[in-house]
User: Fold this.
Amino acid sequence: MDVKDIIKPENLVYSKSKVLTDTVMHYCPGCSHGVVHKLLAEVIEEMDIQDKTIGVSPVGCAVFAYKYINIDWQQAAHGRAPALATATKRLYPDKYVVAYQGDGDLASIGTAEIIHACNRGENIVVIFINNAIYGMTGGQMAPTTLLDMKTATTPYGRSVELNGHPLKITELVAQLEGTCYVTRQSVHTPASARRTKRAIKKALENSAQKKGTSLIEVVSTCNSNWKLSPVKANDWMVENMFPFYPLGDIKDR
Amino acid sequence: MAIKGAIVVDTEKCKGCGVCVVNCPTQTIALAKKVNSKGYPYCYMENPDTCTGCGNCAIVCPDSVITVYRVKI
Assistant:
């Protein structure tokens, strides 16, 4: 059968989500942000909540998320996305509020905001992209940077004496009473991307059922700052990130 | 029943990251020798006969440039 006979509208099985805009993403080739944006857009399309979802974009590479996902957006000061999401959700209790944050945003400058938003049990969804590095500013050490990992500010590798231990913020917020669903996923393979999509859907449903805060950590790559090709960065993540940041549900109730 | 698939790539938006190439279970996809106007080698179906239209390439594509078609024959 010729390819031209297969490429017909009636045979379509997968196409770009209508919730995504046609803007070309500014992310580096192979960046995990693009996959997570797509999964979030697909879930919003499947649940038919495009006009009921408000996103809060962070400071960091994902700051331009509002250009790519066609929902209402706000842009928070560095680390303050959970605070802004709290206010938005309280003013519009019927809307779905999604805070989208990176690890420099959520685990460093925004630690107070995320801990307290989770402790209060705000009915928001937090998507936490953990690539163990500051991406936008040029690859500096983040609180989540692995031990012995080389970054622009730890050129000989992160050491416990000088930089302390990597921060597992997801395990930290799982202990709080306010959270209902805390999970750690990744998007490097089709299976893992589908699991992440299910997690995002579950988190949005929890938000509608007023069960509390849902936090989805996505262990991601930053191939530009890790100085690896996109495919090698995924392999490096499997080899080095997953032993320290094991995937799976940490809390589900 | 045999299944045949095909993909259509938005070559101008493809950034040539190659994540689809390693995630294709049938080794259908490869990066082109040519580049698009931004200088990225875009992905394409090198072996169109082996495509099953599983959609694995499309779901891992960070830039959502792949559209998947599948037909039962």
User: Anything to note?
Assistant: The mean pLDDT of chain A is 95. DSSP finds eleven helices and eight strands in chain A. The two ends of chain A are 50 Å apart (CA to CA).
